[in-house]
Amino acid sequence: MTIERYNPREAEPRWQQAWQQAGVFETPADDPRAPYYVLEMFPYPSGRIHMGHVRNYTMGDVVARFKRACGYNVMHPMGWDAFGLPAENAAKERDIHPGEWTYANIATMKAQLKAMGLSLDWTREFATCDVAYYTQQQSLFLDMLEDGLAYRRQSKVNWDPVDETVLANEQVIEGRGWRSGAPVETRELTQWFFRITAFAAELDAALDTLDGWPEKVRTMQRNWIGKSEGLHFEFGLVDAPEGFERLPIFTTRPDTMYGASFAAIAADHPLARKLAETNPEVAAFCETCRRTGTSQEAIDTAEKLGFDTGIRAAHPTDANWHLPLYIANFVLMDYGTGAIVGCPAHDQRDLDFALKYDLPVHDVFVPADTGERVSDTAFVPPKTQTVRYVRWAGEETVQTCRAAMDASLAKFEAAGWGRRQTQFRLRDWGISRQRYWGCPIPIVHCESCGVVPVPKADLPIKLPDDVTFDRPGNPLDHHPTWRHVACPQCGADARRETDTMDTFVDSSWYYARFVTPHETARPVDPQAATRWLPVTQYIGGIEHAILHLLYSRFFTRAMSRTGHMAVDEPFEGLFTQGMVVHETFSRARDGRDEWVSPEDVRIEDRGGERVAFLAETGEEIAIGSIEKMSKSKKNVIDPDDIIAGYGADTARFFMLSDSPPERDVIWSEAGVEGAHRFVQRVWRLVGGAAGNLSDVAPLAASEGDAGEISKAAHKTLKGVGEDFGRLGFNKAVARIYELVNVLAAPLQAVSDGTADAAMCGACREACEILIQMLAPMTPHLAETCWHALGRSDLVAEQPWPVFDETLVVDSTITLPVQINGKKRGELAVARGADHSHIEEAVLSLDVVRAALGDKPPRKVIVVPERIVNVVV
RNA sequence: GCCCCCGUGGCGGAAUUGGUAGACGCGCGCGACUCAAAAUCGCGUUCCGCAAGGAGUGCCGGUUCGACCCCGGCCGGGGGCACCA
């Protein structure tokens, strides 16, 4: 019997409509089943979806469909992270309003997502630029302000003096503005901050409870929060200006205090500012430091520079021991007290500085074995390693740094030279942005009343639509009327805050809003939010490991503290998926390399080597490195082309095959074709046999050929269920391939009418299992096959099948036999055979006898149901 | 510069987390079907070697009966670094 090819173009829209009509993916509020909240990081509406989105949303969809089948009340919403810089860039470049551009992109991308057949509850959709959403965000801001979690202070920004604009770090290229090319300056502005440091200790400690997160993400967050125990002390300053006689310092290495050779303060330290007032040289130096920019990377990689203030710092242990006091460009005002003590022997940065300024290097400890002294590489062993302390708070001793740090702290405290202190590296979160396309900060500045919060009754503060981008700077600032407003307190003329919020604020609570997306009276319904949160499984890119996830953890706490819900953590399970990358192609053009889109490239095989040609002209071009898909390198594959050509199921299946989901995946046309062949193969086999199976009752067999089929099906079912639970999609795919290989011949026999009743029953059951396992990954194909088997209901509504325990265990197992750790033979034994029986059988094997000769074995290691190793 | 991760055949990857390295897929080779091609099906495919056998998980060293897996040191690639999202 021949069968028509599976036609996804016809089948996919049909099933998508069927699901929608049945409302299978909508989450009822009053459902008694256990809730399961699956969420993928919502996209920025950049224009079109890319393969990274396809991968991310396919993974989430498999989880959602699988958990739904497992009996959970699944919530799987989608929305748009819609504020941000690109919309303003589009406005400038193409004279289109940011809102218009954004909503047009959303429409396009929504249609693309719909074509993927995702099991999303679209009734919950919103965009963060919707007035309804940012109104509630303004309300949250006011609550946080009232609670002391929002405040204003001075802080630095990158300033482009030519464009007269604040620049984002990514807009600063090698110290210059990306458009103007002018050297970037830093400016101090009064800006709004969220007091995330109020939760520093809690955010750190609670990491231990996040069992459902990858260890690497927890480690990154722990390092970012940077909790450290150390010594707080003060230097007495000699020849310092009045009021600066004491200099507070925090050091994490009290054990190295006797190796100090200088002290240094940040260019923004109050003392440095004081000195700059009267000393032009100091002022000039501080200005140089500020030009480095605001990014940590720029500060760390800049040449270490210092300026000797002439002031001397008296060591706390000995008032006569004076250290020079420098202003240094690598000291940060934001961390600790903005001042450090330098110990060159045991810190590379301090050593570089000491060598540059000819300062002494005192070894505090030396390697316990060699006793080697420091020359041009600082000696920084792990704190758990034992070393010989030669110059510290006690006798010469061999001990770990950890022990010496504890002992030093105790000694300093006892002597009254300082005290123990816990310090965090985490800084407060600056949220002010001098931009138009963001959530307005609901504040009014009044001459007489000062900073006045907008009363909640006056919300929302809407963005004005009539803005222009032909002038530099923030359009809200030079809008003719928007900023002028009466003071909510005294009624006098006042002006609005024109800064908008960092877009990270928008994405810090959207997961909570999805629970009750249409609430108008408040950000979230506290009871519903508390019931649905935390998100059961959150899926997104590893690039968000620190900022987005940490800000969300802070927001959950802030919202709980201000009474919006009672939730500790936003995301119970976290999965970070890898990127979709593609090879790049380029050709030389006018002496420069020009990127070529893969669509214009033809690949040929030349003696086993891949060679690329420009399809149109036949010109040979270069195959470049494999990189993250980006428009600038033209290595982008449009998902629409794949879906139009092969169907959504093929695209989905390919995204789940082969590469482990946490790792990057390389896009290749060959891989897509492989996935598509599989889709067709399943249809050919199941669809072909369906006619002879539609009247057969599914029945597992335990004996004979039919038994082999049922065993394979149930073993696969067990494995795939475990794989889906762990998001191990590539392994599930491999298992299903194996099962299909096993089913191929029997299904052909059913098709040919040569299969007996037992075989037909087993095949019918195996097909149903196969279809249900495929359903989360290739849902349209699954429905088509299901229907062909004579079922009139939807796979999407079927409960997950249960495997039969007796079919998944084998009665005999094959043990590999090693001699000295190398596999030399095999031994078939009954499951549960006892140790001595196995040992006896192994020793009588020919290979073992030959290896032993006439000597007895030194040792025989039997690992039950695993392996046997004979040591000779 | 700092923090985190990754490295296995021609390619994507698997290995029950210290127990048979290379499952499954792609590619390639051979064969079947076909007038022919496509599609499909079957067999083979880590490397060296005719073979017996030997080598082998980025490199060097260590622990162990046994190491892709644990430890130390290097090399290469990626992510993040607080205003890209």
Structure description:
It is found in: Cytoplasm. One of its GO terms (molecular function) is leucine-tRNA ligase activity. With 872 residues, this protein is of the alpha+beta class. It contains 25 helices and 36 strands. Among the domains are: 45 residues, no CATH class; 198 residues, Valyl/Leucyl/Isoleucyl-tRNA synthetase, editing domain (Isoleucyl-tRNA Synthetase, domain 2, Alpha-Beta Complex); 46 residues, no CATH class; 143 residues, Isoleucyl-tRNA Synthetase, Domain 1 (Orthogonal Bundle), CATH 1.10.730; 60 residues, Ubiquitin-like (UB roll). β3 and β4 form a beta hairpin. The model has no long low-confidence stretch (mean pLDDT 90). It is globular, with a radius of gyration of 34 Å. Strands 8, 9, 10, 11, 12, 13 and 17 form a seven-stranded mixed beta sheet that branches. Strands 27, 28, 29, 30, 31 and 32 form a six-stranded mixed beta sheet that branches.
What's the total helix number? 25
SS-based structural class? Answer: alpha+beta
Q: What is the radius of gyration computed over CA atoms, rounded to a whole number of angstroms? A: 34 Å
Biggest β-sheet strands, sense, barrel? 7 strands, mixed
Percent in strands: 15-25%
- Identify the overall geometry: globular
Q: What separation lies between the terminal Cα atoms?
A: 60 Å
Number of strands: 36
Under the CATH scheme, which architecture of the domain at 227-424 would be assigned?
A: Alpha-Beta Complex
Question: Could you name the CATH class of the domain at 227-424?
Answer: Alpha Beta
CATH level 3 topology of the domain at 227-424: Isoleucyl-tRNA Synthetase, domain 2
CATH H-level homologous superfamily name of the domain at 227-424: Valyl/Leucyl/Isoleucyl-tRNA synthetase, editing domain
Helix content: 25-40%
What integer is the average pLDDT?
A: 90
Motif ('HIGH' region): 43-53
Binding site for ATP: 631
Protein name: Leucine--tRNA ligase
GO molecular function, one term: aminoacyl-tRNA deacylase activity
